[in-house]
Write a structure and sequence with these properties.
This protein is α+β, with helices and mostly antiparallel strands and 150 residues long. The protein has a single domain (3-148), classed as Sufe protein. Chain: A. The chain has helices at residues 3-18, 66-79, 84-100, 123-141, and strands spanning 31-37, 42-51, 54-63. Bound molecules: zinc ion. Zinc ion binds at residues 37, 40, 42, 64-65, 67-68, 128.
């Protein structure tokens, strides 16, 4: 990977870590899941508003390292407005990217998520980067974790 690309990726991560997108509690969420990575201390709550099979809105709150926060920011931006199937497909691609490396995926299909490709060289960082994706999948799959809004 060229160092220019490396710098660009670094910048995206820092920027999203500093000013995370979709960082709030979603008051009208109908899905919620909590994600924890005790190894690093990352801890997030993920809120989702699912309309049929479309992710109408998604947001998160919590604390963690720059990688986990940037990943949450990038993930929520990437799946907002997508169908559940599209989000799961993207998770598959992202998972391949961070566990097997950027040469195993088409980076153009990952958009800004490609910024996290460097973590594949650091197994502990892979957990930080994937935490919020696993949390998203939990929120989609476990209907009993539906948040009731009184
Ligand atoms: Zn972390």
């Amino acid at each position: 990977m060229s160092s220019e690309l490396d710098d660009l990726y670094q910048e995206v991560i820092l920027e999203h870590g500093r000013r995370p997108r979709n960082y709030r509690k979603l008051e009208d969420a109908n899905r919620h899941a909590e994600g924890m990575n005790p190894l690093c201390g990352d801890h997030f709550n993920l809120y989702m508003k699912l309309d049929g099979d479309r992710i109408e809105d998604i947001a998160f709150e919590g604390s963690g390292c720059a990688i986990s926060k940037a990943s949450a920011s990038l993930m929520t931006s990437a799946v907002k407005g997508k169908t559940v199937a599209e989000a799961e497909e993207l998770f598959g691609r992202f998972h391949t990217l961070v566990t097997e490396g950027p040469e195993k995926v088409r980076l153009s299909e990952l958009g800004k998520l490609a910024a996290l490709s460097g973590v594949c060289e650091f197994p502990t960082r892979v957990k930080c980067a994937s935490l919020v994706w696993h949390t998203m999948k939990n929120a989609l799959e476990h209907q009993r974790e539906v948040v009731t809004t009184e």
